[in-house]
Amino acid sequence: SKENPVILFLDDLQWADASSLELIRSLVTDAMLDSVLFIGCYRANEVSPGHPLLQCLDDIRNFGSVSITDMSLGNLDMDSVHALVSDALHAFPRTTRSLAEVVMQKTGGNALFVEQFLTSLRDEGLLRYSLPSRRWEWNLKEIKAKNIANNVVELMTTKLLRLAPKVQSALRIAAAFGSKCEEDILRIYDKDPCNSGNTPAALDVAVTEGLMAKVEGPAYCFSHDQIQSAAYMLIPKAERELFHLQIGRGLWQQASPEEMDTHLFVVVEQVHRGAGHIIDYNEKVRLAQLSFMAGQKAASMSAFLPASVYLKSGISFLSEHDWELRRELCFDLYNLCAEVEYGLGKFDDVKIHLEELIKRGRTNQEKLRAYYTFVRSCGSQNNTAEVFATAISVLGHLGESVPSTVTKLEVQQEFRTSHMLLSAKTEGELDNLMTMTDADKKEAMRFYNLLLIYAYTSGREAFALMACRMVQLSLSYGVCRESALAFASYGLLLCSFGDNAGGYRIGKYSVSLVERFDAKESYPRVIATVYG
Fold first, then answer.
1. Tens-place pLDDT, residues 158-204
2. What share of the chain is helix, strand, coil (3-state, %, to 5)?
3. What is the pTM of this model?
4. Reading across the β-sheet that carries 212-215, which strands appear in turn?
5. How many angstroms separate the first and last alpha carbons of the chain?
6. 76 and which of 109, 144, 308, 395 could share a cystine (Cβ 3.0–4.6 Å)?
7. What is the SS3 assignment for 213?
8. Torsion from C-alpha of 383, 387, 393, 396, nearest 10 degrees
9. What would the mean pLDDT of 435-457 be, rounded to a whole number?
10. CB-based contact 185:263 (threshold 8 Å)
11. Cβ pair 478, 500 in contact under 8 A
């Protein structure tokens, strides 16, 4: 509200993924959020033309009603560096001017570079505190002659190399996980007999040096991303992939089932980054299975982008022989990957995976999940003709004959059949209908449900026929999740024919089915249909 405005600050937007940028764009352009100030920072040198962030900013500007103010923040100027140096040394500005000029010359005014350069001068004894005089002293001539790294990462790397070998090793491990690493992960890593060190204890030394901070979790966090980059550079470039693989393998082997579930994404990411070094077939299969687990977990959290990455990686570990030896795994990976890509709106990728599934499927049962995703994908692209053609064909294989063109006479016949079956049931009998168990009928209900949704906007006769068929199946074979919308739609039909009392009765029953099956996916449509 205007009385309680909100300021949202996000740093390092140059690393934001597509989903995060879309969320930012939606928030910033939402006319209802008129008391929010959004502040975003990014490094201009890491954002080149065509970068997704720049496209997002252009979209916001083109929206028209959002005011954007650009501020370019460069390095510190001479006066600022001078103020920083004099403040850090608790000295009068007139005594630190010459030192500040050298610091400016060596660092170019980069704030982190200035801080680390002063620290390196102290560590090397070129900047020292004199107890007799109670002030900082320095040898300007020696500082001027000091060779300095070209950038702050090289400077930090030099500093890290002066640390004890165990601390360097721990920093390399922590850097492999990114800017932050949970202590629990490090303790799992240390379980490996090949790792004799105590990684958390070694990182505690880095904390005292100001290189890392211990944060809630508990976890270790690098004090700056450039420090993390410097620690990562301690790993020779040619060995980095294998280093990640060794960490991933160690975690994979040492973690308990509970720990594996908690840290699944971390383990999978490490193994994936070194997967190019895996040559053993059985290990590739196990990794494909692990990738599927990660994709499944990410998809359940609606994290479709990382889920897609995990699943595509899992697919890459499969071979042609696996379609015979690991058939279920192949179908699971391809099906879930297609569903995730559908959630991301990547319909071309959806088509590629579904075509492979349909080509490989030998039975209708193996193809059903792929056809279901295909129908949903076509519907999302407004291709209702393909929706009906495919769904009707699949229903035919499931023993449900559906006419491609529905006449009023057919609707009347279906309505009479449904009315007759319903009239024979009391409210108590409806409430006690068994749960549907016939696999083919359950699949038929799923496809009818899709047709019911798309028929609502494409034709009244088709909508009525689908609703009646679903009610008939529910009364004959038992109810399921899809029955909720079926009865709600049938109640709507009753009201359209003037039977408001009957429509209300069936509508109430449909709501009870939502509760019975916890059918959250149907709740909005059922409530909208029943209560209008």
1. 788 888 999 999 999 999 999 999 999 999 999 988 777 789 999 99
2. 65, 5, 25
3. 0.79
4. 180-182, 219-222, 212-215
5. 31
6. 109
7. strand
8. -160
9. 93
10. yes
11. no
